[in-house]
Structure formats: structure tokens, C-alpha cells
């Protein structure tokens, strides 16, 4: 059984309805809600090459087509290529004015080639000449479809521009009727051209319409080249043909023969920060330095929400009761009160808030809508069909704050209570009972839903305008995977 985090066995219901293990969830300290990758905004913070750790601004990354100019991947196995040096004897050209005495001036010079340590592919295999400098200078192939590609790009840019302007025009009319003044900022995704349009200044619209007018759409043709005559009779040498993934790694050329493989410029990696879509606060923010794996902000659910692990369980049988041993952990630096509940006993979530200000509704219309729809966990659990239920003890469990030094303690405290097996610092083991529906089909997955009510102490300094309370009672629902219903 996977022990560390049990990603497949214990899943939490996110506030958007997704089911995720605790390690894939975030916790917004401002909304006090669990968020997942689907209900947060992902923003690119910085671009860097994972191999040479070169950092670059996004404009430069765009210019370089998100590829590093000095690092390459193997076109055969996609491992990073290494630069190797050899001593090459260079024959200097014979001096034409040197008379009849043949002078051969031999010189050794360091020459460099690219080699894959994984599959032994080298740049010499495909006839790329060795280079005299260790980094850079590798011959670049030009994209044969470059001009068409640029045409398409211009065309779609122009269309997008036009659509944005039309949309904004509609919005402007709508708000002009109401006689309200709108401030338009960068945040609403307005471009300079749109701002000029609103201000009644001439726009560069003529440029975009010209791009649309001069565009020639592609024509489908029924005529294709004939296959070579020997296509069915010629022996196929698989060593000389590229695989599909090798071909698609360079979409511009799609080499069909291994002799046409070319080093692949390494794709850049990004560091991204993640933002809560409801309150706009950062949930994660990495350190800028590409070599650092640390975060400036790291609001992971793993640090804020009680963690539940399955220690063991008895086989689930229809209409019978079985034992379930769970471990609860308080990851926070404050004492936590936990109460186990049935998902249907959770208080209903507050209704969705409609955007109030004009700016907000404009934002909404510009498709920057923030989805605040909260899913009722109980509906989600019902959808997934949990056939078993965990008998939740009435008692409130108190878990001490996290103490890193206590990790080294050997002895756990045995508890005298009926359902607490042991307690140790911020951890607690529970013996619970699972009751399974008599109608559960044997062979079907056995799932049990469980809700937790827990106390949470918010350490965010409250905003001076709106003093927040520091103590909260929060709820979370989780789904335990208990194997399959036995026959
Ligand atoms: Zn939030
Ligand atoms: Zn979510
Ligand atoms: Zn690089
Ligand atoms: Zn390789």
C-alpha cells in the first residue's frame, strides 16, 4: 500500500468538485477554501533552460520560440545532448605562391560535436560538421513553411484584434447608456489599440483589415503524389526509419529517415505562480532564481488541511460492518479540533456572489470571469456513489500542533478511548466502523465518504479595513478507497 501520501486511496473534494489527493491541492488562506489546479489561475513567472539554467524574460523567450540557443536534446531518444571535444588534425591549404616545395602544415585543433550519453547518437552520424567553439554556432535549419506560417499568424492576430474591438464596442455602448464611467486598466486585458478606440482616436485597424484581406486560404486538393512503385516490395529497414515520436519532435521537417535527424533545441521550462481565482491572492510563488526550488509563497493544502491516511481496513462486504483504521495528522502550527461527520450533515455552502461593480461585470464580459461556483460536496459524493459509510464518533478530537522534534520520539501514547488507537504529538490513529449498503454490488469499487470539521487558525495579518477573525471552523469532504466490494 502506498504509504507516504496515498494519492489513490484518500481523495479530497475540492471546492470546485474535483477529487484530488491532498498533495495536489492548495489552500487559499483568504477564502479559506481548498483549491485545485482546475480552479486556480496559472501564470508564467519566468522562463529558463532546465539544462544551463539561463534565465530570460518572456519577450526574449518568445523571440527564441521558447527554446534554448545553447542546449540540445537528442533527436533519437530525447535525452540531453552533451558537447564532446576531439583533437582534430587540420590540414592547412597549400600556399599557392609557395613555389614547388610542398609544405604540409599540420595543426591540431580542438573540435566539438554533440553526443548522446544515453543512446550514443552523435551529430557526426548525420553529417553535421564539428564546430570550433564549444557552445553555439550549430547550423540551424530554416523552416520550409516559415512564410506561410507567418501569414497564418498575422491573419489570426488580426482576427483576434478585430473580435476584441467589436466586443469592446458593444460593451462601451451598453455602459454608455447607463452613463457610468469605466476605468480600463491593463488588468481587464485591454490593448493600446482598444484604449485608443475607446478614446475615439484613430486605431491601427486598417493594418489588421489589410492582413485579413490579403490572406489566401489553403485549398484542399484531391490530387496527391503517387506512392513509389516499390513501396510494397522494398525491404523495410527499421533502423533507418524514424519513429513517430522522433518525427513529430521536429514538426517542421518530420524526417522519415534517421539520417535526417537533427539536434533539437531544448525547450525552455517555466516557473509559474498560481493565484486564487476568487480573491486574486497568490497560492504559490516560486523564487525567481531558476536554480532554486524554494517558494516565496506556498499555500499547499498539505500544510493547512488535516491529512487522513488509511492504516488498514477489513474487506468490505455488502450489508456488513467492517473495521477501518485511519490516521489523522494536524500539519499546522496550532492546536486543531477535529470532528468526523457525515457528508450530508455539512452546513450548506454560501451562495455564489455576483460581481457588483461595473468593472467586475466588464471583466466578466471580457471572459476573465472568475468562477466562484462552489460545489456541494455531498452532491459530488452522491454522484460518485459511495456505497459504504463510516460511523463517525460524536467526540471532538484534539490534535496538538506540529512539532518537528517529536518526529524522533519512539513511543506513542496508548489511549483508553474506544476508538482512539494511539496518539503521538500531532497524529492520531482511529478505529472506525464502516457499514456497507446491502445493495452494494460485489466487485464494484468500495468507497466511503467522510466529512471533517476542523478548527483553523489563520495567521494572515488581517486587512486594516476588514478585521478578520483568526479562528475558523472549516469543513472538508473526502472519499476513501477501500478496494472492491467482496462477494
Ligand atoms: Zn482565495
Ligand atoms: Zn478545484
Ligand atoms: Zn540551455
Ligand atoms: Zn539519445
UniProtKB/TrEMBL annotation:
Transmembrane segments: none annotated. Keywords: Acetylation, Coiled coil, Cytoplasm, Cytoskeleton, Isopeptide bond, Phosphoprotein, Ubl conjugation. InterPro entries: DCTN4 (IPR008603). It is found in: Cytoplasm, Cell cortex; Cytoplasm, Cytoskeleton, Microtubule organizing center, Centrosome; Cytoplasm, Cytoskeleton, Stress fiber; Cytoplasm, Myofibril. It comes from the Eukaryota. It holds the Pfam family Dynactin_p62. Subunit of dynactin, a multiprotein complex part of a tripartite complex with dynein and a adapter, such as BICDL1, BICD2 or HOOK3. The dynactin complex is built around ACTR1A/ACTB filament and consists of an actin-related filament composed of a shoulder domain, a pointed end and a barbed end. Its length is defined by its flexible shoulder domain. The soulder is composed of 2 DCTN1 subunits, 4 DCTN2 and 2 DCTN3. The 4 DCNT2 (via N-terminus) bind the ACTR1A filament and act as molecular rulers to determine the length. The pointed end is important for binding dynein-dynactin cargo adapters. Belongs to the dynactin subunit 4 family. This is Dynactin subunit 4. The lineage of its organism: Eukaryota, Metazoa, Ecdysozoa, Arthropoda, Hexapoda.
Amino acid at each position: 500500500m502506498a504509504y507516504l501520501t496515498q494519492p489513490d486511496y484518500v481523495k479530497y473534494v475540492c471546492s470546485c468538485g474535483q477529487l484530488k489527493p491532498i498533495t495536489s491541492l492548495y489552500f487559499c488562506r483568504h477564502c479559506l477554501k481548498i483549491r485545485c489546479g482546475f480552479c486556480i489561475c496559472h501564470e508564467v513567472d519566468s522562463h529558463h533552460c532546465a539544462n544551463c539554467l539561463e534565465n530570460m524574460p518572456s519577450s526574449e523567450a518568445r523571440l527564441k520560440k521558447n527554446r534554448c540557443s545553447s542546449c540540445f536534446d537528442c533527436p533519437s531518444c530525447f535525452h540531453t545532448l552533451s558537447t564532446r571535444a576531439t583533437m582534430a588534425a587540420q590540414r592547412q591549404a597549400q600556399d599557392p605562391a609557395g613555389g614547388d616545395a610542398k609544405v604540409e602544415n599540420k595543426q591540431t585543433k580542438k573540435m566539438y560535436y554533440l553526443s548522446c550519453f544515453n543512446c550514443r547518437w552523435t551529430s557526426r552520424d548525420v553529417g553535421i560538421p564539428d564546430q570550433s567553439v564549444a557552445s553555439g554556432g550549430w547550423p540551424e535549419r530554416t523552416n520550409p513553411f516559415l512564410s506561410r506560417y507567418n501569414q497564418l499568424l498575422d491573419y489570426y492576430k488580426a482576427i483576434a484584434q478585430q473580435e476584441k474591438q467589436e466586443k469592446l464596442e458593444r460593451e462601451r455602448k451598453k455602459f454608455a447608456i447607463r452613463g457610468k464611467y469605466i476605468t480600463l486598466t491593463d488588468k481587464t486585458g485591454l490593448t493600446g489599440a482598444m484604449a485608443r478606440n475607446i478614446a475615439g482616436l484613430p486605431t491601427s485597424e486598417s493594418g489588421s483589415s489589410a492582413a485579413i484581406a490579403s490572406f489566401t486560404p489553403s485549398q484542399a486538393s484531391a490530387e496527391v503524389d503517387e506512392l513509389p512503385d516499390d513501396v510494397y516490395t522494398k525491404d523495410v529497414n527499421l533502423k533507418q526509419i524514424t519513429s513517430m515520436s522522433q518525427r513529430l519532435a521536429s514538426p517542421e521537417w518530420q524526417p522519415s529517415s534517421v539520417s535526417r535527424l537533427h539536434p533539437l533545441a531544448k525547450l525552455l521550462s517555466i516557473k509559474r505562480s498560481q493565484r486564487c481565482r476568487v480573491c486574486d491572492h497568490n497560492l504559490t510563488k516560486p523564487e525567481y532564481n531558476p536554480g532554486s526550488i524554494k517558494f516565496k509563497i506556498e499555500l499547499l493544502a498539505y500544510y493547512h488541511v488535516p491529512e487522513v491516511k488509511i492504516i488498514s481496513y477489513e474487506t468490505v462486504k455488502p450489508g456488513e460492518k467492517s473495521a477501518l483504521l485511519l490516521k489523522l495528522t494536524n500539519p499546522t502550527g496550532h492546536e486543531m479540533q477535529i470532528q468526523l461527520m457525515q457528508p450530508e450533515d455539512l452546513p450548506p455552502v454560501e451562495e455564489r456572489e455576483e460581481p457588483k461593480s461595473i468593472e467586475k461585470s466588464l471583466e466578466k464580459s471580457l471572459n476573465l470571469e472568475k468562477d466562484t461556483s462552489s460545489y456541494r460536496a455531498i452532491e459530488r459524493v452522491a454522484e460518485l456513489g459511495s456505497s459504504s459509510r463510516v460511523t463517525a464518533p460524536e467526540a471532538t478530537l484534539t490534535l496538538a500542533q506540529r512539532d518537528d522534534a517529536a518526529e524522533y520520539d519512539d513511543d506513542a501514547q496508548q489511549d483508553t478511548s474506544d476508538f482512539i488507537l494511539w496518539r503521538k504529538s500531532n497524529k492520531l490513529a482511529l478505529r472506525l466502523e464502516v457499514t456497507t449498503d446491502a445493495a452494494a454490488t460485489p466487485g464494484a469499487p468500495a468507497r466511503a465518504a467522510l466529512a471533517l470539521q476542523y478548527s483553523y487558525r489563520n495567521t494572515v495579518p488581517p486587512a486594516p479595513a476588514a478585521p478578520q477573525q483568526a479562528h475558523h471552523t472549516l469543513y472538508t469532504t473526502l472519499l476513501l478507497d477501500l478496494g472492491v466490494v467482496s462477494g
